[in-house]
Amino acid sequence: MSGKIDVHQHLLPPAYRRAFEERGQTPGGWPIPDWDPAAALAMMDEAGIATGVLSISAPGVHFGDDAEARELARATNDYHAELVKDRPGRFGQFAVLPLPDVEGATAEAVRALDELHADGVVVLSNAHGRYLGDPSYEPLWTELDARSAVVFVHPAEPPMPRLEGLPSPVLDFPFDTTRSALHLVANGVFDRHPRLRVILSHAGGFLPYAAHRFTFASMFNPGTTEESIFEGLRRFYFDTALSSTPTSLPSLLVFAAPGHVLYGSDFPFNPAPSRRKFDNWLDTYEDLPADGLAAVHRTSAEALFPRLAQ
Fold first, then answer.
1. What is the distance between the alpha carbons of residues 32 and 284, in angstroms, rounded to a whole number?
2. How confident is the model over 259-295, as pLDDT tens digits?
3. Residues 6+ apart with CB under 8 A from 76
4. What distance in Å separates the CA atoms of residue 102 and residue 111, rounded to the nearest whole number?
5. pLDDT > 70? residue 1
6. Residue 59 contacts residue 157 (beta carbons within 8 Å)
7. What pairs with residue 120 in β-bridges?
8. How far apart are CA 200 and CA 237, in angstroms?
9. How confident is the model at residue 214 (pLDDT cuts 50, 70, 90)?
10. How many whole angstroms separate alpha carbon 114 and alpha carbon 148?
11. What is the 3-state secondary structure (H, E, C) of the chain?
């Protein structure tokens, strides 16, 4: 099969959308778009996307009650698994987890990966203010590491006020991705769980641009060095959603390890004209190596998701 593998594409199942809207939630002040499988497939055909690995976006499934979050995660993942079962070549699954309920999230991750055969899991950059390096997450990382799981990190609204006229997806999401990624590395999650493969949304926020600055974290985290922090940050994979610009790509491509940059569309939150603009910037970027565009579009993702290479 040819065509792009899109690792940053979202779904809004009916039950999830109802739960979302009943609670008056929005993705950080961003409008909630329409979504259905037919619209997703139409976009994919127009954009040359063979497979979209779908995920739930912020604010996830936890709205304050652990039991309700577990039930919504399970229902959402079951719906998602059926979608993949019906069209395994077109759709993939990052299963949603009900964090910050670590016990419930761990159980759902095991179920989704072992029984639903999900391609990976999605976690938010923070869950009600709890970031990914938090020691309480250790049981979840242990189960994911045992399965060499792919973990997709999507930004969430940070625990701070929005600035007027600046919804969180515009400004705060890249910041929160960066914050969570450094927290994860500084707290040694990759050291304890080396089989994890973690994708950061939107080119890692500000991480590639400021990675050397972040090595100062070693001054405050015993057992780390500037070199270990920097190499830990290079363990991440990065998607290009809303980030394949002439100003972002130079930093991303210099910083990321070979094979660690993946295509992302951010459908349906990214409107079609914007998605076409970002795609064109990527497709016409002159400083990619000879096989660089093919790697971003497909072959690097095939290494993470072998079933999609068949």
1. 31
2. 999 999 999 999 999 999 999 999 999 999 889 999 9
3. 13, 15, 16, 56, 61, 96
4. 14
5. no
6. yes
7. 94
8. 6
9. very high
10. 12
11. CCCEEEEEEECCCHHHHHHHHHCCCCCCCCCCCCCCHHHHHHHHHHHCEEEEEEECCCCCCCCCCHHHHHHHHHHHHHHHHHHHHHCCCCEEEEEECCCCCHHHHHHHHHHHHHCCCCCEEEEECEECCEECCCHHHHHHHHHHHHCCCEEEEECCCCCCCCECCECCCCCHHHHHHHHHHHHHHHCCHHHHCCCCEEEECHHHCCHHHHHHHHHHHHHCCCCCCHHHHHHHHCCCEEECCCCCCCCCHHHHHHHCCCCCEECCCCCCCCCHHHHHHHHHHHHCCCCCCCCHHHHHHHHHHHHHCHHHHC
Q: Are 153 and 125 in contact (CB under 8 A)?
A: yes
How far apart CA 24 and CA 153 sit, in angstroms, is 24
Read off the pLDDT band of 27 (50, 70, 90).
confident
- Number of Cβ within 10 Å of residue 272's Cβ equals 13
Contacts with 83 (C-beta within 8 Å, 6 or more apart), sequence order:
11, 37, 54, 91, 93
Distance CA 181, CA 275 (A): 25
The amino acid present at 77, given as its one-letter code, is N
The helix-helix angle for 138-146 and 102-114 (nearest 10°) equals 10
Which sign, positive or negative, has the C-alpha torsion 217, 222, 225, 230? negative
Separation CA 74–CA 98 (nearest Å): 9
With tokens 């929160």, the residue in question is: 176
Average pLDDT, the chain: 96
C-alpha span between 150 and 279 (Å, rounded): 24
Q: How far apart are CA 92 and CA 240, in angstroms?
A: 18
Cα–Cα distance measured from residue 211 to residue 254, given in angstroms and rounded to the nearest whole number = 11
**Is 0.90 topped by the overall pTM?**
yes
Pairing of strands 237-239, 197-200: parallel
